[in-house]
Specification:
By secondary structure, the chain is an alpha/beta fold. The chain contains 22 helices and twelve strands.
C-alpha cells in the first residue's frame, strides 16, 4: 500500500521550478548574440526584438540601455573581464563572454543592484552554457567587489600611450589615431578625449519635420535643434513619428544639414533635376523630396541594394512627389536611364564609408571595421565621385558627403577627385551651412568643406563638401 501510494505521488525533486529570466536581459543578450554571429545591426534588430517580446516601456528602456551600453564599452569591459577571470577573453566561449559583458555593464555603469546584476546573468548563463554558470558567478562577484573607478585604474595600469586611451575609451586603437588625425587637421587634436567621450554617450532621439508638408514646423512639435531649421527633439518621439504619416521622421541633425547644404546651396530654378546617387536607407532622400516639391524640381533616387531601395520608397512615402527609385550601381548608371539625358542640376553623393562618424548610434561599427577597409572604401568613393561628375549638368552642384571624419575618406577622396576633374570648382560650403543653421556653427579647417562633430555640435561626424561643374 505504501509503495502504491508512493508511486502515485509526484516526485517534486525531478521537476524543479523554472527560474524566470528577466525579459529585457534576454532581449539584450539575443541582440548581442546576433551582432556577434550574424553581423546584425543593433539599431535595426533591437526595436524588432522589443516589439516581439512585448516589453513594457520601462523594460524596453532597460533592454536598450543594456544593449547599447554594452556595445559601446565592450573593449573596456573585455579588459576588466580578462583581469577578473585571469585569462584572455578569446579563451572564453563567445556566448559566455556576452553574458559577462552584460553583467559588467550593469555592475560598473548602471544603478542595477549588485545581487540583481549577478543573479540574473547567472540565470542566463544556465540557459546558454549550463556548465559555465559557476564561472560567470565567480567572475561577476569578483568584479562587483571593486568600484568602477578602481577598475579603470587597474585597466590603465596594463597599457600605455594610445593603447591606454583606446581601451579606457573603448575604441580600437586605429580608430583613436584616425580621429585624432582628423581633429589635428583642424588644429584641434587636443579635443580627442572629448570626442571619444561623446561617442560613448547615448544620443537623444532626434527628429525632422519634412519642410512644407504640414502646418506644424519643428518649433511647434518639440524643442528645436540648435542648428537644423527642420530638426527637433520631443519627449515621445516614436509616438510623434507614428502620428504624422511619414512627415516626421527620426534623423540625426547632421544628416539634415548635409541634405539642406545641397538644396540651399543656391536658389532653385523651377524644373531642376536632382539625383540622390546612393540613397539608401532614404533619410536624406526624404528631405530632398520635400525640398524638390516646394521648389518645383524633380528628384530621382538610386540605390544598389534592392532591400535598401525599398527602404527609400518607404522613407519618401509621406511626400506627395513622384520620385523614381532606381536600383543600380552608382558607378555605372547612365543619366538617360535615370531620366535626365542632359545631366542633373544637383547630386547628393552620400558615399559608403567606414561609418566612424556615427559610433554613438551604431556602436558595434567600431569593432567591425579594420584599417584595411579604408583603401577599398576610398577607391569606391573615388569611382562614385567620378561617375557623379559625369552625371552632373554644366553649372550643376555636387554634394560629397560621408558619415566619417577619416581624412582619407573626406579630404583625401575630395582632393583626388578635384585633381581628376579640373572642370570642378569648390564652393564655400561653410558659408552655405552657416546660412542654413539656426545658430552659428563652431567650424574649423578650410572654408570649402565642413566637418561636424559629436562633441562640438551634438551631431554625427558628417563631412560635407560642395563643388560645382563649370558651365
Amino acid at each position: 500500500m505504501n509503495d502504491e501510494r508512493r508511486s502515485r505521488t509526484p516526485d517534486r525533486r525531478r521537476a524543479p521550478a523554472q527560474v524566470r529570466v528577466s525579459p529585457p536581459r534576454i532581449v539584450a543578450f539575443e541582440v548581442l548574440e546576433a551582432v556577434r554571429d550574424d553581423e546584425a545591426y543593433a539599431n535595426l534588430l533591437l526595436p524588432n526584438r522589443i516589439e516581439r517580446s512585448r516589453l513594457t516601456e520601462a523594460d524596453a528602456a532597460l533592454a536598450t540601455e543594456l544593449t547599447y551600453g554594452t556595445l559601446r564599452m565592450l573593449g573596456f569591459y573585455d579588459a576588466v573581464i580578462a583581469i577578473a577571470a585571469g585569462r584572455p577573453v578569446d579563451r572564453i566561449d563567445p556566448p559566455v563572454l556576452d553574458v559577462l559583458r552584460l553583467g559588467v555593464h550593469q555592475l560598473l555603469s548602471t544603478r542595477v543592484p549588485t545581487h540583481a546584476a549577478v543573479n540574473e546573468q547567472v540565470v542566463i548563463a544556465k540557459r546558454v552554457a549550463p556548465t559555465a554558470s559557476g564561472f560567470v558567478n565567480g567572475v561577476l562577484r569578483t568584479i562587483s567587489r571593486t568600484s568602477a573607478e578602481e577598475w579603470r585604474d587597474a585597466v590603465a595600469a596594463e597599457y600605455d600611450g594610445d593603447a591606454r586611451t583606446a581601451v579606457l575609451a573603448s575604441h580600437p586603437e586605429w580608430v583613436v589615431r584616425a580621429l585624432r588625425a582628423a581633429l589635428d587637421g583642424e588644429g584641434r587634436a587636443d579635443e580627442v578625449d572629448d570626442l571619444l567621450e561623446a561617442d560613448n554617450a547615448a544620443p537623444r532621439v532626434n527628429l525632422v519635420a519634412l519642410p512644407g508638408l504640414g502646418d506644424e514646423d519643428a518649433a511647434a512639435l518639440g524643442t528645436p535643434n540648435r542648428f537644423s531649421p527642420i530638426g527637433f527633439t520631443a519627449d515621445r518621439p516614436l509616438a510623434l513619428v507614428a502620428a504624422h504619416e511619414g512627415r516626421v521622421r527620426v534623423q540625426d541633425e547632421g544628416s539634415q544639414l548635409a541634405a539642406l547644404a545641397l538644396t540651399r546651396a543656391a536658389p532653385v530654378r523651377p524644373g531642376e533635376r536632382w539625383l540622390d546617387l546612393c540613397a539608401g536607407p532614404g533619410g536624406k532622400t526624404a528631405i530632398l523630396a520635400a525640398e524638390a516639391l516646394a521648389a518645383d524640381a524633380t528628384l530621382v533616387a538610386n540605390e544598389l541594394v534592392p532591400a535598401r531601395a525599398e527602404l527609400v520608397r518607404r522613407a519618401i512615402a509621406g511626400v506627395p512627389l513622384e520620385v523614381h527609385v532606381a536600383v543600380g550601381d552608382g558607378r555605372e548608371t547612365a543619366a538617360v536611364a535615370l531620366g535626365a539625358e542632359g545631366g542633373f542640376d544637383r547630386i547628393l553623393l552620400d558615399a559608403p564609408c567606414t561609418g566612424l562618424g556615427a559610433l554613438r548610434r551604431r556602436p558595434e561599427a567600431r569593432w567591425r571595421k579594420q584599417p584595411a577597409d579604408v583603401p577599398e572604401l576610398t577607391r569606391l568613393q573615388g569611382e562614385l565621385f567620378d561617375h557623379a561628375v559625369r552625371l552632373l549638368a554644366p553649372g550643376g552642384v555636387l554634394a560629397y558627403v560621408t558619415c566619417s571624419p577619416h581624412t582619407a575618406e573626406t579630404r583625401g577622396t575630395l582632393r583626388a577627385g578635384l585633381q581628376r576633374h579640373p572642370e570642378l570648382e569648390q564652393l564655400d560650403t561653410r558659408a552655405v551651412l552657416q546660412s542654413v543653421a539656426r545658430e552659428q556653427l563652431d567650424l574649423a579647417g578650410d572654408a570649402e568643406t565642413v566637418q561636424l562633430w559629436p562633441h562640438r555640435h551634438g551631431t554625427d561626424a558628417m563631412f560635407i563638401a560642395l563643388v560645382r561643374r563649370s558651365a
